[in-house]
Amino acid sequence: MAKITHIAAISIPAFSHQASILEFCKRLVHLHPNIHVTCIFPTIDSPPPATISLLQSLPSSTPVDHIFLPPINKQDLPQDVPPAVQIQLAVSQSMPSFRATLHQLHSTTPFVALVADTFASEALQVAKDISLNLSAYIYFPPSAMTLSLFLHLKTLHNQVSCEYRDHKELIRIPGCIPIYGHDLPEHFRDRSSISYDLILRLSKRLLSLADGFLVNSFSKIERVTAIAIEEELGKKNTPVYLVGPIIQTGPNSDPNGPECVRWLDNQRPNSVLYVSFGSGGTLCQEQVNEMALGLELSGQKFLWVLRAPSDSANAAYLGAENVDPLSFLPRGFLERTKGQGLVLVNWAPQTQILSHSSTGGFLTHCGWNSTLESIVMGVPMITWPLFAEQRMNAVLLTEGLKVGLRPKFNSNGIVERDEIAMVVKGLMVGEETNGIRQRIRELKDAAADALKEDGSSTRDLFQFGTRLENLKRGHQTFDGL
Ligand code: UDP
Question: What is the spatial distance between Cα 120 and Cα 320, in angstroms, rounded to a whole number?
Answer without folding.
Answer: 24
